[in-house]
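Quick question, first post here. What does this chain look like in 3D?
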Amino acid sequence: MDSIFHEKQEGSLCAQHCLNNLLQGEYFTPVDLSSIAHQLDEEERMRMAEGGMASEEYRTFLQQPSGNMDDSGFFSIQVISNALRVWGLELILFNSREYQSLMINPINEKAFICNYKEHWFTIRKLGQQWFNLNSLLTGPELISDTYLALFLAQLQQEGYSIFVIRGNLPECEAEQILAFMRVQQQQRPRLIGEEEAQTSAGSATLAQTEVGLGLEDEVVDEDEELKRALALSRQEIDVEDEEADLRRAIQLSMQGAVVSNRSSETEMGNVKSGSQAAGSTAGGQKGPNETLTAEELRKRRQAYFDRQQQQVQSNIPPQLDTKSTAASGSENTSSEVDQQHKPSQ
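> Answer (accepted):
Ran it through. Tokens below.
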């Protein structure tokens, strides 16, 4: 397939591509075809001038644009026919009565030129196989012998004008190679517009994918930042809660200390009154038990304040426990004092 010459579409130069694909080489340029078109225009002008240069028909002909070419690059069938005549080739209309009367099988021909709405393309036989060399395709398209007649009939139904090429085509590399081997085409070529559309669609899809990945990365980053912010806020809240708990614990411990001091003063008053009563009952005698009782009370009181201090430091100073401890301490102290004074009575 690489040996087959195939010009792809450029602008509206389909007539040039059609001729070069037919001849299998860069034989014609837009300048060459324009020269042929100008020559045809001059021949037509001279024929019109034979009827009189002052006639209305001649003046109208001069005002009209050329019928053999235009600014877009289109060339008429007359230009193509004259270009092929240089190589000794002739065009015959495929559906004409003369050609149809010959009853020739299309596969026995050498090439066809097809035209529809200012578009020209070539179908040529290379070796023993037929190829569609349409310049709108991305490459040559293999056509089987069975499909050739159906393809030509389909083109006629679509409005194409088909011309049979008669004469000896110039030798080419593809003809020499394909004369000894046959081509097997795995994938048919596409139209150039479809390939570009698919390429642009693929590029757009790739761009969207990249944008989607970028957005996902940004979302992931935002999620991670949000998680870190929430973690930091939780830590700050925990610290604030711990500080608040510590302040409340200190306040409670201070309240507990005041209550315990008042209870201790009350207990001391009771102890003193009890001691005085015991002394009066015993006839004013003082023994070692009275000294031991005061010392014991002092130690117990010191131990109580030590426990309160430890509770403040450990930040676990429940008010109810302090009160209950103080009350139990008072009851224990009172009971012990009563037990110590029972023998003296």
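The CA atoms of residues 159 and 275 lie 137 Å apart.
Confidence is low (pLDDT under 50) at residues 269-291, 318-345.
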